[in-house]
Structure formats: structure tokens, C-alpha cells
Design brief:
By secondary structure, the chain is an alpha+beta fold. Helix content is about 25%, strand content about 35%. It has 3 helices and 5 strands. The protein is elongated, with a radius of gyration of 16 Å.
Length: about 140
């Protein structure tokens, strides 16, 4: 039995857009993500150290971005989706006070494996913070 919040493979169509997700970028999000992923690089939690590196403020690490990508896809696919591939590329940094908005769409379906490929991006005021593809297996 599947959860009522789970997307079923039969209900997905190529070109289907995922609902956008706006994520406010805060110091707490950046710091918490770095700590949770054991990334103690000073640029993720110390504003003075980040400025010494030439950055205007602390900036988000890739593991936090990765988790937010997973959140975006799972919010659409549901808790029974199984991630089989996640390929992302970083672009513009995420700084506190900005907002990153995710968008994406279904780009490929494989009926034999019940796999759905999603192409996505997360943009902030400077451009693309993250782009990539995610593959999930749906019930």
C-alpha cells in the first residue's frame, strides 16, 4: 500500500513541471547545514573568515544544497520514492538574505524500471546556484 502523498509512476508525464519551492537563505540554514554535514570550513560559519576569503558573507556548502535538492524532489514524488541518481553542479553562491527558488520538470521516463528523471535548477538573485538531474524510482 502506498501513502496518499506518494506519486505513482503511472500518473507522471514527460514535461510535467514540479511545483516551485522557494527557500529563504539564512545564516541559520547555512550554519546548520554545515554543522549537520560536519563541514567545518570557516567560510560556512564565520563571516570574518568568509570575508578574508573574498566572500561578502558566509556561503552555503554543497552538501546543504544537495539536501535541499532532495527535499524539492521528494516533496513532489513523496516519501516512497527511491533516489537512484543525483547529479548536481554548483554555480552562483548562496548568501544570507537571498532566496533560492527551485524549479524542475520530468524529462525522461523508463517504464521497465519505473524510473523518472527530473531536470532541475535552483536560482537566487545572482543566477543559477544549482543545476542538475535526479532520477527516482516510483511505486
Amino acid at each position: 500500500m502506498t501513502s496518499k502523498n506518494t506519486k505513482r509512476f503511472e500518473d507522471v508525464r514527460p514535461g510535467e513541471a514540479l511545483p516551485e519551492l522557494a527557500v529563504p537563505v539564512t545564516v541559520t540554514l547555512i550554519n546548520g547545514g554545515a554543522i549537520a554535514t560536519r563541514d567545518y570550513f570557516p567560510g560556512h560559519h564565520d563571516a570574518d573568515a568568509a570575508r578574508a576569503l573574498g566572500s561578502p558573507h558566509v556561503f552555503m556548502n554543497i552538501l546543504t544544497t544537495n539536501g535541499l535538492v532532495q527535499r524539492f524532489v521528494e516533496q513532489w514524488a513523496g516519501p516512497e520514492a527511491v533516489f537512484s541518481s543525483l547529479k548536481i553542479k554548483l554555480g552562483a553562491p548562496n548568501y544570507p538574505g537571498d532566496c533560492m527558488t527551485f524549479s524542475g520538470s520530468v524529462t525522461q521516463l523508463d517504464a521497465d524500471t519505473r524510473t523518472v528523471e527530473i531536470t532541475l535548477g535552483g536560482k537566487n538573485s545572482m543566477g543559477n546556484h544549482v543545476t542538475g538531474t535526479v532520477a527516482v524510482v516510483l511505486p
